[in-house]
Amino acid sequence: MFIKIAIEMGTLIYEIPEKLKDEILIGSLVKVPLQNRKSKGWAVEIINKLPSHIKNTRIKKVIGTSYPKPLISKELIELGKWMSSYYQSSLGIVLNLMVSPIGKTIKVETGLTPTPTPTNFKQLNGKSIPSVITNALQKNEFKSILLYGATRRHIYLRAIEETLSQGKGVILLVPEIDMIAPVFSFIQQNFGERVALFNSKLRKEERWVEWLRIKQGMAQIVVGTQSAIFAPVQKLGLIIVDEEQSTSYKSGKFPKYSTPIIGTMRAKISKCVYIAGSRTPSIETFYNTEIGKSTLVRLISPKKIKKKIRIVDMRREIDPIFSELLQKRLKTYIEKEEKILLFLNRRGWSSFIVCNDCSYLPSCPNCNIPLTYHREKISASSGLKCHYCGYEERAPGYCPQCKGTNLSRKGIGTVQVEQAFLRLFPKVRIFRLDMDVASRKYANRIFKSFVEGDFQVLLGTQLIAKPLEFPEVGLIGVISADTGLNLPDFRGSEHTFSLLTRLIDKGKETILQTNNPKHQALKHLVSNDYYGFYKSEKLARKEHQYPPYSHLVRILLEGTNESVVNKHIYSLQNKLKEKGLNFIGPSLCPIEKKKGKFRYHFLLKVKNPSDLPLNSIVPKDAIIDVDPIELV
Predict the structure, then answer these.
(1) Structural domains of the chain in order of their starting residue, each with its CATH number
(2) Between the chain's N and C termini, which has fewer beta carbons within 10 Å?
(3) CB contact burial 119-145 (16+ within 10 A = b; e otherwise)
(4) What is the pLDDT of residue 347?
(5) Which alpha helices (DSSP H) does 271-323 contain, by range?
(6) For residues 416 and 62, what is the distance between their CA atoms, to the nearest angstrom?
(7) Which one is predicted more confidently, 288 or 121?
(8) Over 50: is that where the pLDDT of 606 sits?
């Protein structure tokens, strides 16, 4: 008897010794000889007859098992095989993601009885959920549902209750570790000890204990972040991905998987219900409801006081940071001693040129994204560059659209904003919170201090827009909406719309400062019209075949020796052409040198990443990113 073992370098065939035939099962972690050392791998397929091409090859034998019972289910192995193909990774690397580091001193507990479900659902009284969700949960088949709206919590609870009543398990995901505590507490109040907490920040021993509780059926509900999508839930019946549009669901390590995509595929394999929840769904997710891949459930929000949102055209302002209106409203709220948020979504490398008279913004003719301005010219005839395809052009001396000369380079940062604020209001306590000064724990302490009134004004980047639960503030000032809209990223408008929607929810009044007051994203933001934004964004993407009309695959080549990197670039470029693949590049990355390495990338547009033969043509040290979120 032979078996396929998935290790990091690939999948190999080994012989099962007679004494181990009853021990080695699909999903077992086993020890095998590999070259002159021992290695560990996953048993993924029993083979009773060797393939003809290796019949005369000497087959090595499995040494033994590393754990007494199989750790990965057949459903997760099937998911792993799909991920291996889709994300251009080896099966062994993928399967290693699915099991927590094994605790050596912890034994498997037996004879435990699952905790019964509490019967007093006080929070759910008078609440109902759409019949499409109830009907889907009662059928043993895959169903994808988009829950679109702001008030989703009671529906999640009802859906979990229905799933548990059928003797099935649940995975509930949130994008940020900071969001886990309130969600876990809320779910645990209703379902007691049946809830397991699972995320990458738990200590090794804690993760292993929780993993075992889930594996043995002691916990039927898992609350966690992206890695919890692989939790070994028994009889999985429901997967919920809240705030599905969040970029935090994208893994930063290889294979760079997208949690909502993995959640959908796992639900298909397990024949269960997948619910994605969001007030501002990703364009791809909403598009799937249009083409019938998913069912849209639109929630009607309770009536709220209409938010006061005003747009300021900064082209008419004297002060480049604080408009006259924002200064007046700041003074008013400072006198009323109400809390104020100042927001600037500034990234260090994002500089662009804009016409202050007509709002013209130089963009790439091939990729339809803003060109990045480089202080030092890239070549003798450049200054502006596209970081998707490598297109370059000279930085203009006048506006090609209105022929005016009132051009300026934008790219102000939070430090300048803080200094300008203190010049205007020197006695007001302000705190600057951005990734330059904040760790996660530190940020939480600052939020708490802000809530408790230790300072009146909080200035920050995306950190202050997270859906953390703190009281409504008085005024929100968006210093420059253009910074997010004009990033060299085709998703810039989508991310800005989603981010500012969450930010606006936190305040009574919002002032949006911009050089482009007629931008579609801002227009629909003010009218709270997600669907209008979706339609305009979808049209823009269709023209250039961006997602959802294709999948992007990024291939990153980097190294300390520029000539070696260039050699790999030209070799890969020729191979991509030989395969007839649709690609743009090579291009310098937005951050051209990182940790001393020269960095170039290619972007491919494909229908199905699983069909790509990349592993056979890319250099071994190349980084492959399927469905990339950022291109830095």
Answers:
(1) 2-72 (3.40.1440), 127-298 (3.40.50.300), 308-349+411-543 (3.40.50.300), 551-626 (3.30.70.600)
(2) N
(3) eebeeeeeeebbeebeebbeeeebbbb
(4) 43
(5) 283-290
(6) 63
(7) 288
(8) yes
